[in-house]
Predict the 3D structure of the following.
Amino acid sequence: MTETQTYSFFLGCVMPNRFPSLEKSIRVVLPKLGIHLEDLEGASCCPAPGVFRSFDENTWLALASRNLALAEATGNNLVTGCNGCYGTFKEALHDVREDPGRLRNVRKILKGIGINYQAKIEAKHVIELLNELGSEGLKPHVSRPLDNIRVGVHYGCHLLKPSKQRPWPKTQKPTFLDELVEATGATSAKYKNKNLCCGAGGGIRGSNVPLADDIAKEKLGNLLAVGVDAIINVCSFCHLQYEQAQIELNKELGEERYNIPVLYYTQLLGLAMGIDPVELGLNMHLVDTSHLLEKVEVQS
């Protein structure tokens, strides 16, 4: 990726409404790497694959296709920073490309609201664009290597599955995100049950908070056991889960046992690029990032 590429940026619901800090880091970092983002005007909820699709798959597919069609009309491919949105768009494209009847039905619905849809667009994840650059492509942009920072990587379910609809190597032990983390100079720590769900998906956080927190508690305990400075994620909903769960678990325990900063990958990369933490939104997190930032400043 040596020249500027333009993508329609699909924000989703959680990122702009709950975590504009993550959005800001994406908007600050990607242009410095030759990736230009244009706002996708008129976009709606993706809608969420683990909830909406379970109740009405045809409506889910039509709504997802409408968002894809808006990007298609701009001449850009679509990019999102949320695993759930990514899953919706990847699977919606797969459904209409594998079944011409479903495509005809979707096109008929969208034609009724004045939208022409060809399903020729591609949908990518922010981390997919960075993975195309690769570790060697990112390293020249790293001016402040995070050599003394140790992090726990969380991939998230919808980023990886179903594997046949994803661009990653077909393996039960993915390494691409760990490699991108280590391009910043940070160490990606090994920890137990690394690929366990964060605990929020499928409507669990919305319907059963104690269960969501219990799943997060297992992962948080495993991360504490190996002594990480931060959790690195690539999904606004996983981010919500790890921040909110720590607050709730501490309240339940009556002590600050869980206090692991939660960073989106572009925030980690931005730090390694020498970007001011405030520009990356790191002053806006629910879980305090000051100890991590102090450690970054000490080494620089």
User: Anything to note?
Assistant: The CA atoms of residues 151 and 228 lie 5 Å apart. The two ends are 29 Å apart (CA to CA). The beta strands are 5-10, 35-39, 77-80, 123-125, 150-153, 187-188, 230-233, 262-264. The longest helix spans residues 57-74.
